[in-house]
Amino acid sequence: MRPEFANPSAIPLPLWLIRSDTDGAQIPPEAGALAATWARSQNFTGKPGQICLIPDATGGLAGALYGIGATNAPGRERYALAHAAENLPVGNWKLANSPEGFDVAAGALGWLFAQYRFTRYNSAEPPKARLVCPDGVDGERLLALAAGEYLARDLINTPTSDMGPEDLEKAARDLAARHGASIEVTVGDDLLDKNFPMIHAVGRASDQAPRLIDIRFPGTGPRLTLVGKGVCFDTGGLDIKPPASMLLMKKDMGGAANVLGLAETLALLKLTESMSLRVLIPAVENSISANAFRPGDILTSRKGLTVEVNNTDAEGRLVLADALALGDEEAPELMISMATLTGAARVALGPELPPFFCDEDGIADALYRAGRDAADPVWRLPFWDPYEAMIEPGIADLDNAPSGGFAGAITAALFLRRFTGKARAYAHFDIYGWQPSAAPGRSKGGTGQGMRAILNALPEVLK
């Protein structure tokens, strides 16, 4: 499905955004005396998410009041209007006012996010309350943001039976075709011929051959390379996961979904015209078979670094390493990796706040601020150099799964950093890519994380 605003030619119902204070709901005079009287009779106080439907003189629906809380009051929900989108009656709606301090554009984006439904396997219908794009808001930008989010959610929500490496390649080819980008895919044993040995090792046990997807968008300017982990299902390999840990492993390609979603938004906004955008996705399934890679194996990476495999369930960093090494060879101004990489990140920060790692303070600050302002929060963790010894096993250059269980997100990030060095700057996002339970604007299931933080930071960091 595609995000849409309501057709403004249809007569919309007014939706009044109402603040609350110590005296109760602050109904603007423009809403009319009937609205104020009715709100009092319904005990409408303007608390966040409260809805009060306003009748007309004949008993029909004249509009609605929607509570947005007190000015400067901290909100627990990111998307202030998403609850309205999901709970207002059928019809077209238009914001009738814009209270001081209320971000109308963010509210409209939340409304679009609330419209999302994953309908590939059932006939779930989106909410019937539709919003006319508010005056003064860049509707095309919001639609582009929502389109990228929808794409990421769709890809993550699709089970591996329909989103294996071949299907992920098709999604990448479809995106490239939509935007006039070129695409090159290296498949199966060709990975060995072209020196992607770790991608091949992780994916060779699957019925669907491993592959490296390489998309280049037309455009000139600073070079931005996005690398997304595309593990379409992760059994854990020979270090097999318990059944409960496999239930969500269709989402282990969430990094790939997020970089494709971000690329979709960048292309729709035509920002790819003023940069050199490249997207790299190692697409594999970590399966179990007689030819699966084994604990104790030592792999030689594209960069020439040797890696001791101490856990076949730490496979994401292996496939990312070869892709990062390829991207680094062009020395882009900025290279970003996104991956559903470690449980340690979720233990530290939970499912909604993904950590990121970056050595450049200015870029890290810009990413944090952009995420905060775009309701796409991210939190910086350090590339902590004293922990480098933890990823050096002695028998090889690197260890893919240090023992001890400490600082798992940091040691994984340090591992990935070893495959960069020529890029002017590198940032890694350890995302979850999944909404455990439904919330306003965030349906249960696949979700984008970090995309808008990166997008909004680009003007500052990609110079």
From TrEMBL:
<dbReference type="GO" id="GO:0070006">
    <property type="term" value="F:metalloaminopeptidase activity"/>
</dbReference>
<keyword id="KW-0031">Aminopeptidase</keyword>
<dbReference type="GO" id="GO:0005737">
    <property type="term" value="C:cytoplasm"/>
</dbReference>
<dbReference type="InterPro" id="IPR048816">
    <property type="entry name" value="Peptidase_M17_N_1"/>
</dbReference>
<keyword id="KW-0645">Protease</keyword>
<keyword id="KW-0378">Hydrolase</keyword>
<dbReference type="InterPro" id="IPR043472">
    <property type="entry name" value="Macro_dom-like"/>
</dbReference>
<dbReference type="Pfam" id="PF00883">
    <property type="entry name" value="Peptidase_M17"/>
</dbReference>
<comment type="similarity">
    <text>Belongs to the peptidase M17 family.</text>
</comment>
<dbReference type="GO" id="GO:0030145">
    <property type="term" value="F:manganese ion binding"/>
</dbReference>
<protein>
    <submittedName>
        <fullName>Leucyl aminopeptidase</fullName>
    </submittedName>
</protein>
<dbReference type="Pfam" id="PF21337">
    <property type="entry name" value="Peptidase_M17_N_1"/>
</dbReference>
<dbReference type="InterPro" id="IPR011356">
    <property type="entry name" value="Leucine_aapep/pepB"/>
</dbReference>
<keyword id="KW-0464">Manganese</keyword>
<dbReference type="InterPro" id="IPR000819">
    <property type="entry name" value="Peptidase_M17_C"/>
</dbReference>
<feature type="domain" description="Cytosol aminopeptidase">
    <location>
        <begin position="311"/>
        <end position="318"/>
    </location>
</feature>
<dbReference type="GO" id="GO:0006508">
    <property type="term" value="P:proteolysis"/>
</dbReference>
